[in-house]
């Protein structure tokens, strides 16, 4: 056999081994998804997710009426920490969200056998859940974080580069696209794919999911818009996280009314997550 033939044979063997390993990983992930423990992990994670969103919505509602606090994940963790079982609750939320993130990554591997679109969607969910879980665990260990400062710092670091403004703009466009996806999912009631309540609760869950997803989507679109504004003005201070996006509504005409609607919607989304934890598909 010539050297070219040996190279092709080695390449073919390596490709076959890689495909075999991928198939085994996908099969293992699919089996893990069906394990009874996965149902408990998913339920606990959605309960934790619901609590976090409900608290964020409550803080945002307080801001609309002149109150203080940070209407984001870090603010929610601070509020949870101030409860009688704060430390224990933070650990519970952090571990539950970490488990939910791991389950989402497992689902991404399983979905990769059927197509990249659903796999990417599950991986995106996993990243979002992991961020919430990490925020809770940092708070449980006495640390803190500020979403607004992180957003501004990221924008400043990117804009220090020649094409930084374009990168910030891409982040803004991507974030806004995620928000639009949430709005569409709520409006079209695509969330029904994730939850299967008893028939007598279906109408209530539909109302919770529709209002919740649309409110969350609008909030995320505002975050994306602020990043786009920062890119257009080449000013990293314009970028903001969720708290900054909601706080910005108090400075525009009619913004307080919109903030109240979004805040109530986020609280309803939190209740929807509790329902999803109970009756997850």
- Average pLDDT level: 85
Q: Give the count of helical stretches.
A: 10
Number of domains: 2
Q: What global shape is seen?
A: globular
How can the largest sheet be summarized? Answer: none
Secondary-structure element order, as H and E?
A: HHHHHHHHHH
Q: Which range best describes the helical content: under 10%, 10-25%, 25-40%, 40-55%, 55-70% or over 70%?
A: over 70%
* Amino-to-carboxy terminus distance: 55 Å
Q: Structural class of the secondary elements?
A: mainly alpha
Estimate what percentage of residues fall within beta strands.
under 5%
Record field, number of beta strands: 0
Unreliable stretches covering 5 or more consecutive residues: none
Q: State Rg.
A: 21 Å
Describe the protein's topology.
Elements (H helix, E strand, L loop, with lengths): L2 H32 L1 H29 L8 H9 L4 H26 L4 H25 L6 H13 L4 H24 L11 H35 L8 H7 L6 H24 L3
Helix pairs in contact: 1-4, 2-3, 2-4, 2-10, 3-4, 3-5, 4-5, 6-7, 7-8, 8-9, 8-10
Any overview of this molecule?
The protein is mainly α. It has two domains: 29-145; 147-265, no CATH class. Helix content is 80%, strand content 0%. The protein has helices at 3-34, 36-64, 73-81, 86-111, 116-140, 147-159, 164-187, 199-233, 242-248, 255-278. α1 (3-34) packs across α4. It is globular and about 50 Å long. The N and C termini lie far apart (55 Å).
